[in-house]
Specification:
By secondary structure, this protein is α+β, with helices and mostly antiparallel strands. It is 37% helix and 25% strand. It binds flavin-adenine dinucleotide. The site of flavin-adenine dinucleotide has 35 residues, from helix 1, strand 2, strand 3, strand 19 and helix 11. Flavin-adenine dinucleotide binds next to helix 1, strand 2, strand 3, strand 19 and helix 11. Keywords: FAD, Flavoprotein, Membrane, Oxidoreductase, Transmembrane, Transmembrane helix.
Length: 433
């Protein structure tokens, strides 16, 4: 067995980013401690979809992650939809002519076009809580500490450049380096960028979402098999709705998006009423109306995202996942970007022999990962407006042309080439030192 590395790392936060990173680092015998604010690991009861790039990154980090994904994943259930990412429909009745057609041959709610995956890398949706539970099984006892909400970081000025983490419970921990995986409201991000940096805190995207799960039997009865069992988008004016199957087709995951100018609440998740939820989609077609009426919990999730920042690292502290680049969910690429980050970070830290070189690994990570992940955030926000007839208006031909191509650069990411580039940046900067 390979000997352990001589340095240790604190991972702040145990979500998808923290856990996939932990699995990657443990494979390379790097000593880690995960500090999680909650009393245990946990995810919300909703679905998350992974694109081909994310599935490839999982495979390259560890077979454990692929096994967890394979155990939980669900793909489109209809054989004719095997290569479809999402089937696109117009869901808004206001876009129809008097006979209910959105363009010749396409009725409101009918399939308009499919965004094809065209790859054998794989994809799929999972129930978040189940996927996280599978990842947790790969974390040995003693690696994680719970109820540890990070309050502050300090770089030690005794020449060691170690980092002291101070937690809300008044305790401290000293590590050679810290990786912030503490999500969209990250304490690590605010510390690293400074409270006055406009990018330190997430900004409201003008969109909010209702999330729901509908048993497939009920969905099939309401919508027919094709819609209930395969991934669908419904586009419309200042709103859109998406569905995809999870739990081996037993459940249809729903996210219904609507718009408002500003978010006036302190909380990002608030309870509203069924009446308000139905009112948001009152002018939509029958498919969307049925789905919205079947959703039980009218909670609203405000969608925030990060403006681009100038760096992901300072000294031996680095941001990763949503802490670095929280995105709106419109391209289904946020969590995938987190897993790619975990691959790059673990592969770079594998190269590091002594703690003094960690900062150069963080520099290489920043150089390679920041442009891609910030582009995902930017294009995702645009995609939300595209689907809601705000980017290119309601010109369906332009929307189709734009949308069928816009995900390709995310899915076809040349991971090997980019990993080689990251390692070369790391090694050439070590050579210069
Ligand atoms: C409505 C919606 C739908 C989405 N759908 C998709 C999708 O289909 N596909 C996709 O790829 N992405 C999707 N995303 C994005 C995806 O959910 C995120 O990118 C991903 O979950 C982020 O994971 P993370 O581990 O970086 O952060 P988080 O999941 O936020 O985890 C952060 C962890 O850190 C802990 N923590 C926070 N603060 C501290 C602290 N101070 N000290 C210690 N611990 C702390 C938290 O308790 C938590 O466990 C969606 C997002 C939203 C909002």
């Amino acid at each position: 067995m390979a000997t352990s590395k001589s340095f240790n790392i604190a991972i702040i936060g145990g979500g998808i980013s923290g856990l996939t990173l932990a699995i990657g680092l443990l494979q390379h015998n790097i000593s880690i401690t995960i500090y999680e604010a909650a009393p245990h690991f946990g995810e919300i009861g909703a679905g998350v979809a992974f694109g081909p790039n994310a599935v490839l990154a999982m495979k390259k980090i560890s077979p454990t992650i692929t096994a967890a994904f394979d155990k939980c994943k669900t793909v489109n259930q209809g054989p004719s939809k095997a290569n479809s990412w999402f089937t696109i429909r117009v869901g808004d009745a206001r876009k129809a002519d008097a006979d209910g057609f959105v363009k010749p041959g396409v009725k409101v709610g009918d399939a308009w076009y499919d965004v094809e995956l065209d790859t054998d890398r794989g994809n799929g949706g999972v129930y978040r809580a189940h996927f996280l539970d599978e990842l947790v099984k790969a974390i040995p006892d003693g690696v994680a500490q719970f109820g540890k909400k990070l309050k502050h970081l300090k770089i030690v000025d005794d020449g060691s450049r170690d980092v002291i983490c101070t937690f809300e419970d008044g305790t401290h921990a000293r590590h050679n380096a810290v990786i912030g995986c503490d999500g969209i409201k990250a304490t690590t991000r605010r510390w690293l960028l400074g409270e006055d940096d406009p990018a330190a805190k997430a900004v409201f995207s003008g969109k909010y979402a209702y999330r729901g799960l509908i048993p497939s039997e009920e969905a099939t009865e309401m919508l027919g098999e094709e819609v209930a069992q395969n991934s669908s988008f419904f586009f419309g004016y200042h709103g859109h709705l998406l569905t995809f199957p999870i739990e081996q087709g037993k459940t249809m995951n729903v996210v219904a998006f609507a718009s408002c100018k500003e978010w006036k609440h302190d909380q990002w998740v608030i309870r509203t009423s069924k009446e308000d939820m139905n009112a948001d989609f009152a002018e939509w077609g029958p498919h969307v109306q049925k789905i919205v009426h079947a959703m039980q919990k009218p909670d609203i999730w405000a969608l925030f995202y990060h403006l681009p920042c100038d760096t992901y690292y300072k000294g031996r502290v680095c941001l990763l996942g949503d802490a670095a680049h929280a995105s709106t969910p419109h391209q289904g690429a946020g969590a995938g970007a987190c897993i790619e980050d975990s691959l790059f970070m673990s592969e770079l830290l594998k190269e590091v022999e002594k703690k003094e070189d960690i900062e150069r690994a963080f520099k290489a990570f920043d150089e390679v990962r920041r442009p891609r992940t910030q582009k995902i955030v930017k294009t995702s926000e645009e995609a939300g407006r595209l689907y809601e007839f705000e980017l290119l208006g309601d010109d369906l031909d332009k929307i189709e042309q734009n949308q069928t191509k816009r995900q390709r650069w995310i899915w076809d990411y040349d991971v090997d080439e980019e990993l080689a580039r990251a390692k070369s940046i790391y090694h050439s900067s070590s050579a210069q030192a």
